[in-house]
Amino acid sequence: MSKNIETHLQENRVFKPAKEFSKKARISSMKQYEELYEESIKKPRTFWAREAKELAWRKKWTSVLDWKPPYAKWFVGGKLNVTESCLDRHLETHRANKAAIIWEGEPGEIRTLTFRQLHREVCRFANVLLNNGVKPKDRVLIYMPMVPEAAIAMLACARIGAIHSVVFGGFSADSIADRLEDCGAKLVITADGGYRRGKIVPLKASVDEALDKYEGQVETVIVYQRTGEDVAMKRGRDKFWKEEMAKADKTHEPKAFDSEHPLFILYTSGSTGKPKGILHTSGGYLLGAYSTCKYIFDMRDEDVYWCTADVGWITGHTYIVYGPLANGVTQVMYEGAPNHPDFGRFWEMVERHRVSIFYTAPTAIRAFIKAGDHFPEQHDLSSLRLLGTVGEPINPEAWMWYHLKIGGGRCPIVDTWWQTETGAIMISPLPGATPTRPGTATRPFFGVDAAILDEEGNECGPNEGGKLVIRKPWPSMTRTIWGDKRRFRKTYWSDYEGLYTAGDGAFRGPRGNFWIVGRLDDVLNVSGHRLGTAEVESALVEHQTVAEAAVVGRPHEIKGQGVIAFVTLKEGVLPNAELNQELRNHVAQIIGAIARPDEIHFAPALPKTRSGKIMRRLLKELVTKGEVSGNVTTLEDLGVIEHLQESLANAKSQ
Ligand code: WT7
Of all protein residues, whose CA lies closest to atom 18 belonging to ligand 1? Predict the structure, then answer.
């Protein structure tokens, strides 16, 4: 970590928000930020009660916060229907016929849904769910391409109090089956397929494969026809979206649910075992989504906002569905890949729709840099006023390119740190107030009591690396891991009594800015997505030829980190190039393409201690430095290292 800190410390470029931007922004100076921040930390109940009044409640809460670590309840006694804040309330205003979603399919078609139209679709689909027997707290699994119907499906679940669990369309049938197993969904919403890089991704086929494996009971599968390709439909179980919608009533009176009513489960990778189901509830989550959009993206009525994430990730939940809709802003939604038909696609779309706020990931920015400046240069990007990034630390080169080539040197950049578990952005500049520096997410958002602690729990001094923790509850925090309270406590609340441990290493600079360095656990960050090394290892050992596997991350120019695997084969199996390829595909098949290892190295044995523990530290050093330093005296067989070193060197020279 120390080397990382050193590189950051050499970063002394500062960018102050432009006067014109600050003048109009909700928070226009550091003084204003600091005063409000202080109130939010000292009197969180006062602060959040005031913010929460901007949402649509059916019944006011009796107490803002009930905190029994690690369990928080926000707006206790309050009742609301999350979709009323996102949809119904806009219909009584000038926003009724304003575009809520301007959607582009990858092949190029454009569809616009106004708030009224979106509301109508959500109402009708809520009735479809009711007609199919879905009750409050039932789980509904959603496996969809990036089409408006993905958001409609999520909102319809929320409207009737069902818990949605969206599975990213790039995940495999096995991943769907695991999640079904864990959450016990009885209804699945999917599509025939979606477009990605000019090809059709067959989604329904993966759902069928998952349902063959899943031993529980899925009664209904609703299939939205996006591509129009033929799909197998199982009689009695599978129903077309279109036909169900035609049968359903068009009006739906929303019921009010408890503020702590579960809203969704979203699975994310951890350092051990299978992905965990992060549970978010209604009032607090919605408030986090709403107020971060309001203050950090400074959303206003005239904005055209675009978040390039997929609804399958938390970014899509909070910053495509709930946050922007609750703010009544117009947004762009895009189905496909950033490089289809070429790397100009995003910039062409920014120009076409006059996008003013743009939110993407550092990995995408690095891919654009590599593709060449001529792509953005061919387009008029003057509509942009604010840029954001999320998912991983942004390297200064990418930050500067984004600032100059996309933002034309005039747009503030908000580098937003948060996690699936935090529900909403936690550390970020406020665009009209905070001086930014390439590589730092700067300061905590309102109500976020972030700190960096050493092993003993003491706060680290300036430039001293430690663990990032949050010391007070915040409205959009995860309430638990679905079905696993023990894991919830152990993962987030056991390092320091009563404090939330994020799993990231970080340090604070001399001006109090937070610099996030990266994960401290065995979680990789591949293209801004979390991937557990344990998941990839278990996928590998599921293959009949594999005896043992160890997986580590290696810095990757575009992806941030790449997956490198070390494998020992079972007795009598000979390593060869075909098997290598087969194993890489096998991982992609078991988890999804994101997890496909960049390299697999076969070895007669893995480096182990005398007690038989795999020495990951050595493997990490081998892949990052090409050699091992430090203490290897506990290693059982030194020859193993030489062998692996050779294999890595060979891969490099190829
Ligand atoms: C992990 C959370 C939250 C949406 C996307 C990822 C890393 C996220 C930043 C940032 C440095 C970041 C952290 C975090 N991360 N944003 N701005 N700077 N690191 O959500 O899959 O839950 O992953 O992503 O390591 O713990 P996620």
Answer: 393
* pLDDT band, residue 1 (cuts 50/70/90): very low
If you take atom 3 of ligand 1, which residue's CA is the nearest one? 419
Same domain, 445 and 567: no
Does the CB atom of residue 519 touch ligand 1 within 6 A?
A: yes
| Mean pLDDT of the chain, nearest integer | 96
Chain segment 543-554, per-residue pLDDT in tens: 999 999 999 999
User: Is the CB of 441 within 6 Å of ligand 1?
Assistant: yes
Nearest of 547, 514, 519 to residue 533 by alpha carbon: 519
Q: Which protein residue has the closest C-alpha to ligand 1 atom 20? A: 419
- Tell me if 32 CB under 6 Å of ligand 1: no
Q: Could you list the residue range(s) of the whole structural domain that residue 135 is in?
A: 114-253
Q: What is the predicted pLDDT for the residue at 547?
A: 95
Whether ligand 1 lies within 6 angstroms of the CB of 416 is answered as: yes
Q: Are 478 and 530 within 8 A, CB to CB?
A: no
Query: Is there an atom of ligand 1 within 6 Å of 275 CB?
Result: no
Q: For 561-608, how does the pLDDT look when each residue is reduced to its tens digit (9 = 90+)?
A: 999 999 999 999 999 999 999 999 999 999 999 999 999 999 999 998
pLDDT score of 631:
72
pTM: 0.96
**CA atoms within 13 A of residue 523's CA, in its CB half-sphere:** 25
Q: Final residue of a domain: which of 222, 253, 284?
A: 253
Predicted confidence at residue 4, as pLDDT, reads 67
Number of domains present in the structure of the chain: 3
Say if CB 389 and CB 359 are below 8 A apart: yes
Q: Are residues 489 and 529 in the same domain?
A: no
Task: For residue 126, report the distance from its CA to the centre of ligand 1, in Å.
Answer: 32
Atom of ligand 1 nearest to the CA of 315: 4
